[in-house]
Amino acid sequence: MLYLLKTFIFNANRSSRKEYKMKTKLIRFFVAIVAVAFMCISGYAQDRTVRAAAGDKYVISAKAGGVNETDGSITVRRADGTSGHLIKGDDLNIGDQVWTDTSGKAEVLLNPGSFMRVGPETAFEFTSTSLDDLRLKIGSGSAIFEVIADDDFRVTVLMPRTAMAFTRSGVYRVDILPDRSSKVSVYKGKVYFGQDGKTVIKSGRSATIAGINADVQKFDKGDRDGLTTWSKDRAKELAKANASLQRNAMRSTLVNSFNRGWNLYDSFGLWVFNPSRRYWCFMPFGTGWGSPYGYYYDFDLWNIGMPRWIYNQPPPINAIAGTRVAPAGTTVSPTGVATSPSAPRTSPRREAPGDDAQPTRRQPAFMRMENNARTTGDAAVNNGGFRNSEPSSSPGYQGGTSTTSAPTPSRSSAPTSAPREPMAPRGRMGSKTVPDN
């Protein structure tokens, strides 16, 4: 009897040890899977975005190629040869080819502040995602470009028989016609085309282009199709998404990630993923900015109340002159290389210095845009658009080169979506006060 009892206890203990070892192995296996998944997700996030710190509400990015919205069936063939459906939240890289079906539409992020929205039966791909020289190819179909641009932050579109660069903020539509020629329609802004940029396509005009020849005619901006309506609706929705950002949470994300993923010199602003609306919106560095469609961006860097050392950021090393910039022409060869200059530049050209040349400091891009708006009437800075809500007063930038600023006009209160009175063009903001944070 005693022998049987000892045998029973021994077997029970052995069974318990086996179960313990099995549970331990399962736990270790589960932890390993979680660790690998976390590393993959972290690697993706570091490639695509900048999450400032654990627990931050917002994710920021300054990268082009994000798919912000889709509708209908869209196919993508990746540069590595794989294919599949393109959905909201995907990223597009150089060489990824995209086609929309007969009812497909997609919104793609370009430089921060600029969007491309494509309609049905459209084929496109990126050939460069560099923020200061973004290039993409439209093979067929139609696309609307809502862009914030200047000579140094341009969006170049390669078409079957020509190419064009958008160097002014505005709303532009590109249609590829059956004979492979292209039709470019300007809803807002202007396009310089032809030898020496002497042909100007202004707002309310379209040009049918084949090679270097352009037939410019007026068109009725009131004539709209599904793509035109959808593009404007999206611009309005994204302005609302900007207005819904939360100040304190946004401040924490920006402070924690400053100079580790963004600075004031390399773009006009940042893409911010709004988790409540589940898409990216634009937060400009400058104050008083809006969508070229005319919808006001309530939330910008200046009403967050950032620490003084961020507003006083000196130019980083890569902001020192030393890179020759291609001529400001908007006529480029089918390979994407500029072949003629354009309208006179409104910002100083960054020339390659000689052996004895002294490095010159340049302004942040948003300051240059605001200063140039006095002569260009930029659609993004002085758009006289529609206010989503009343923004707070904005402090001024103190870094870079110090200059005398023009007085900032007061902003009268306005109800939601009421027309905003056009503001007088601003100079540099060096005379404004900066928070003492």
How are the SSEs placed, and which strands pair?
Blueprint: H1 2-48, E1 59-61, E2 67-71, E3 74-77, E4 83-85, E5 97-100, E6 105-109, E7 115-118, E8 123-128, E9 133-140, E10 142-147, E11 154-158, E12 163-166, E13 170-176, E14 182-188, E15 190-193, E16 199-202, E17 205-210, E18 213-218, H2 226-243, H3 247-257, E19 269-274, E20 279-284, H4 308-311, H5 365-376
Parallel strand pairs: 9-11
Antiparallel strand pairs: 1-19, 2-6, 3-4, 3-5, 5-8, 6-7, 7-10, 8-9, 10-13, 11-12, 13-14, 14-17, 15-16, 17-18, 19-20
Task: Explain what the structure shows.
The chain is of the alpha+beta class and 437 residues long. Among the domains are: 2-48; 60-227, Jelly Rolls, CATH 2.60.120. Helix content is 21%, strand content 24%. It has helices spanning 2-48, 226-243, 247-257, 308-311, 365-376; strands at 59-61, 67-71, 74-77, 83-85, 97-100, 105-109, 115-118, 123-128, 133-140, 142-147, 154-158, 163-166, 170-176, 182-188, 190-193, 199-202, 205-210, 213-218, 269-274, 279-284. The strands form four sheets. An eight-stranded antiparallel beta sheet has the order 2-6-7-10-13-14-17-18, covered by helices on one side. Strands 4-3-5-8-9-11-12 form a seven-stranded mixed beta sheet, with no helix packed on it. A three-stranded antiparallel beta sheet has the order 1-19-20. Residues 34-54, 320-361 and 389-437 have low confidence and may be disordered.
